[in-house]
Design a protein that fits this description.
alpha+beta, binds oxidized coenzyme A, single chain, Dihydrolipoamide Transferase, four-stranded antiparallel beta sheet, 28% helix, OB fold (Dihydrolipoamide Acetyltransferase, E2P)
Length: 477
């Protein structure tokens, strides 16, 4: 026997009457659970609504151009009863487990509909959980409906509403997100096309598949007319290698965070002209002060690592050199100066790199910053950061000082224009004019966007960081 189930528009946040821009199925189709049925488009982004049940789509109630809100019925699916399908009806636990496993597996496999953080979110435009309102950033659990633990549970019950679905795109300034359906985004990713470069011909400047094809054709024509194609960004595809031919191998899927941050890092690396300025700060006195303040930090229930001082120093630098606290406007014609001081901190987590943001770092004491840092990095490691906690950074810090190394070239977390890399402090002999003195020297690596910041400014910025870190009382000036 088969039962009929209504597929409804799930929780889509505060949006109402959202236009249907694409219908991806037809009446009579046999659809799978989680298969996308329609694409909706808000003012800011697009989302696909998946089927909460698999079966035969016996009725489709929406068509392109309709406007829908949460709870509206998209279609009716005839679902074959499990007893009829030959499954052991008593094995409901087993099925739930299978479904959960499948859901997780699909979650891992699923293509993220965004162009991963832009800014996303990274040093990796990094990339969150928690509520699932339409936003511009999302975390690993946010990527697709039904992925969090609670939602996997919810997915098991027919009585519960379909899980909320996030609008795609993370970590981007919403006004800069090109409108395009997830299908077009997927195609763009496959073709390696940056959608922000494509002109959309549909309503609200939405990019259609035709627009994308037109763009690719014109790029190919440009590339062909440039000498040997060297004028374009085309590069040879990486060789396809059967590694198993050379020895034993094991293949592991990328984590969802890696899937998001990878393309974002790549984009930032390729599209931003990076230069890295190196410097060394004498933190001998700072370290003495930090050690002396350890008991107070412990009393306050936190730990004050050198990184806390870096956050303070970066804020001082942003105040003194406001160009470092800017972003290029969406049209690339102007600089947006920010009057707030939110500092991103790269955190190494078992699932990949995440960049939570310490808000209003300028108004916080060292102890407060230490508290925020340990709370946010703990949440990042537990996969519990909310979108808000990863948005709005002015400049990021990537500290490998707890691990080692002498310098590195961090990738800018667009749309920020600079990132400070911090390596391990070491005691070095430093000439004081009369003799060598043992001093604790901290290596700094500042990567900056050369479209916005000149080399001289960058050298002044790192010198200033060295100046304030050399005597942290200056941070109070
Ligand atoms: N020089 C010398 N020692 C340092 C140091 C430095 N620059 N920075 C930290 N340390 C010490 C700390 O004082 C601490 O030692 P004690 O326990 O003896 O006090 C130890 O190293 C470990 O510090 P930590 O790493 O736990 O803490 P942190 O505040 O320095 O960093 C966090 C916090 C979340 C940034 C860090 O744990 C982390 O994830 N770092 C990796 C960031 C990363 O992956 N960046 C690369 C991005 S690009 O791929």
């Amino acid at each position: 026997m088969a039962t009929k189930t209504e597929i409804k528009v799930p929780d889509i946040g505060d949006f109402e009457k959202v236009p249907v821009i694409e219908v991806l199925v037809a009446e009579g189709d046999v659809i799978e659970e989680e298969q996308s049925l329609v694409t909706l488009e808000s003012d800011k982004a697009t989302m696909e609504v998946p089927a909460s049940k698999g079966g035969k789509l016996v009725e489709l109630r929406v068509s392109e151009g309709d406007e829908v809100s949460e709870g509206d019925v998209i279609g009716i699916v005839e679902v074959e009863d499990e007893a009829d399908s030959g499954d052991d009806a008593d094995d409901s636990d087993g099925k739930d487990r299978d479904r959960e496993a499948k859901s997780e597996e699909e979650g891992r496999k699923s293509e993220d509909g965004s162009e991963a953080s832009d800014e996303d979110e990274s040093v990796g435009d990094t990339p969150e959980t928690g509520n699932r309102k339409p936003e511009t950033e999302k975390s690993e659990e946010d990527e697709k409906p039904g992925r969090s633990a609670e939602q996997s549970e919810a997915g098991k019950s027919d009585d519960l509403p379909a899980p909320p679905v996030p609008f795609v795109e993370m970590g981007r300034d919403p006004s800069s997100i090109p409108h395009a359906s997830p299908a077009v985004r997927k195609l763009a990713r496959e073709l390696g096309v940056d959608l922000s470069q494509v002109e959309g011909s549909a309503e609200h400047g939405r990019i259609t598949e035709e627009d994308l094809k037109k763009h690719v054709k014109s790029r190919m024509a440009d590339g062909a007319s440039a000498a040997g194609g060297a004028g374009g960004m085309e590069v040879a595809a990486p060789p396809k290698v059967d590694f198993a031919k050379f020895g034993e191998i094991e293949e592991q899927k990328l984590s969802r965070i890696q899937k998001i941050s990878g393309p974002a890092l790549h984009r930032n690396w390729v599209t931003i002209p990076h230069v890295t300025q190196f410097d060394t700060a004498d933190i001998t006195e700072m370290e003495a002060f930090r050690k002396a303040a350890k008991p107070e930090a412990e009393e306050a229930g936190t730990k004050m690592t050198p990184l806390v001082f870096m956050i303070k120093a970066v804020v001082a630098g942003l105040k003194k050199f406001p160009k470092f606290n800017t972003s290029l406007s969406n049209d690339g014609e102007s600089l947006v100066y920010k009057k707030y001081f939110h500092v991103g901190v790269a955190v190494d987590t078992p699932n990949g790199l995440m960049v939570p943001v310490i808000r209003d770092a300028d108004s916080k004491s060292l102890l407060e910053l230490a508290h925020d840092l340990s709370e946010l990095s703990g949440k990042a490691r537990d996969g519990k950061l909310s979108r808000e906690e990863m948005q709005g950074g002015c400049m990021s810090i990537s500290s490998l000082g707890g691990i080692g190394g002498t310098a590195f070239t961090p990738i800018i977390n667009a749309p920020e224009v600079a990132i400070l890399g911090v390596s391990k402090a070491e005691t070095k002999p430093v000439w004081n004019g009369e003799e060598f003195e043992p001093r604790l020297m901290l290596p700094l690596s500042l990567s900056y966007d050369h479209r916005v910041i000149d080399g001289a400014d960058a050298a002044r910025f790192t010198q200033y960081l060295c100046h304030v870190l050399g005597d942290v009382r200056r941070l109070m000036l």
